[in-house]
Amino acid sequence: MSTQLHDDDVVARLRDGAPNYPDFGPDAGHMLIAARRALRRRRSRQAIGGVAAVMAVVVGLTAAGPIDVPGYGMFVMPGGYDLGSLLNQGEPPTFPRRQLLDDVGRLERHVLPVVEELGLTLYIDHSTPGGPSCRVFTWSHGAFRDRNSDCANPDDPELPFDAESTTAFTRVADAIDASGVDVYRIDQRGWGSGPSFHLQDSSWLWNWYYSYVPGTPADGPDEVRTQTPRGVRLQVHVTGDWWFTVEPDD
Predict the structure, then answer these.
(1) Which of 3, 19, 138, 181 is most exposed, with the fewest beta carbons within 10 Å of its own?
(2) Which of 242, 183, 247, 246 shows the shortest CA–CA distance to 213?
(3) In 10 A of CB 174, how many CB atoms?
């Protein structure tokens, strides 16, 4: 049975060297101090976690392009390129060189061989999950288009998709998925004589696409700037026969 001591008695005993206190065993004072320190540490961690969460939201709302996360690679915030273009209208916004090289490497490995094998000149995929599809596909066997009213006009010359063109279209879509590059359109009307791979985006100021230009001279310019009625078009030589273009959206 323990005896409750008054504060004066406790102080007196401590001044006398704490007589009758055991040399070993729990020390309530130390335990209280340790508990308070643990509580302060926990509150500090919670405060830091709250700040980190706020910063994550701020970054998500303000990031103007890809972020290089050590150990994870490039991370692109949704809408980041649009924000960058809004902040940088006088200078066409481009991607970091590391991303340019990675993208063209994957396009050359996965998509370009299928495009060349099929004789593809136009691929458009505006399909939406649960909604009507709008696929346009021109290749060595002809021109095809989904004929629903959301995609086709009565006077469009393309034929409805047949089994062979559906299979070919799926091959291209699968190759794009394997590349990891968000391409929604491939055509022959971009920069140079080869195919251009247009990137999906929600920007209303800029368009981005990669172009494969066979025969690009090794001593050619690193970039080409062209003044258009809508603003500056920038073509950047990435590597080999590959270029990246950013141009004002029409």
Answers:
(1) 3
(2) 242
(3) 13
pLDDT digits (tens, 9 = 90+) for 57-92: 444 444 444 444 444 333 444 334 443 433 334 468
Q: What type of residue sits at position 219?
A: D
Give dist(CA 213, CA 220) in Å, integer: 12
Question: Tokens at residue 219, please?
Answer: 């001593």
What tokens does 127 get?
Answer: 């399909």
Q: Distance between CA 132 and CA 26 in Å, rounded?
A: 73
pTM (2 d.p.): 0.64
User: Which of helix, strand or coil describes residue 46?
Assistant: helix
- 153 token code pair: 């006009």
**3-state SS track over 165-188:** HHHHHHHHHHHHHHHCCCEEEEEC
Q: How far is CA 221 from the centre of its chain?
A: 28
Q: How many CB atoms lie within 10 A of CB 106?
A: 17
248: its two tokens: 């004002």
For 134, what's the count of Cα atoms within 13 Å in the CB-facing half-sphere? 11
The dihedral through the CA atoms of 74, 79, 82, 83 has a sign that is negative
- Nearest residue to 244 via CA among 178, 196, 202: 196
Structure tokens at 111: 């998509």
Cα torsion 98, 101, 105, 111: sign: positive
User: pLDDT tens digits for 28-65?
Assistant: 444 554 555 555 555 545 554 554 444 444 444 444 44
Residue located via tokens 């140079």: 192
Taking the CB of residue 226, how many other CB atoms lie within 10 A of it? 12
What is d(CA 197, CA 120) in angstroms, rounded to the nearest whole number? 12
